[in-house]
Every structure is written in structure tokens, then in C-alpha cells.
Design brief:
With 102 residues, the chain is an all-alpha fold. It has 5 helices and no strands. The N and C termini lie far apart (29 Å). The relative contact order is 0.17.
Length: 102
């Protein structure tokens, strides 16, 4: 699961670094009321994974990934993957200022 910089398909992909600690993910998941699968999808989206890559990682179909991501978008009140990342980063900043994260 990595993103090839040359745009070729099937090349080994290098994942983006993790944005948050495990504890941070739990707090963010709770903040948005995400299911476990939505949270897993969010983590993989933030690492730059595509739906087929998420399906492989979670061992589900791409259709199931779409259901999880649609629910994720709705729970976070965003329209797309970029919105997920932005909303998570902003929420993490709020949690950091309030001292409610580890």
C-alpha cells in the first residue's frame, strides 16, 4: 500500500506518516462518534490509501469501504477525503489547546 510518485499503477507505494498517536485516534474517533471501521478507514485515508488499498487492509470489499467512508464523511460533516484530514487535524489542535489529549 503505497503511492508511486511517478503515477504508475502497481508500483510499491510509500505510505504517508501517521498523523496521530493511537490514543489521539481514540479521542478523535470519540469526538466524531465514529465506528471502529470508520476510524480504521480514516487512519488509512490519512496515510494516503485508496479504496482498493483500504479494502485489502480491512479485508472487505470495495463496496463495503464505500459504505464506511460515506458514513465517515457524514459523521464528520465533510464531502471528501481532504475534508477528513483537515477536520481531524483541526480537531486535534482543539484537543491539544484544551489539554484533553495525550
Amino acid at each position: 500500500m503505497a503511492h508511486a510518485n511517478d503515477g504508475s499503477r502497481g508500483a510499491a507505494q510509500v505510505l504517508l506518516p501517521a498523523l496521530f498517536t493511537n490514543a489521539g485516534w481514540v479521542l478523535l474517533g470519540n469526538r466524531f462518534g465514529l465506528t471502529q471501521r470508520q476510524l480504521q478507514a480514516a487512519r488509512l485515508i490519512c496515510r494516503g490509501c485508496t479504496n482498493p488499498e483500504i479494502a485489502t487492509a480491512l479485508r472487505v470489499s470495495e463496496g463495503t469501504v464505500r459504505l464506511h467512508t460515506d458514513g465517515l464523511f457524514k459523521a464528520m460533516n465533510v464531502r471528501n477525503r481532504v475534508g477528513v484530514v483537515v477536520r481531524l487535524v483541526l480537531a486535534d489542535r482543539v484537543l491539544a489547546k484544551g489539554g484533553k489529549r495525550s
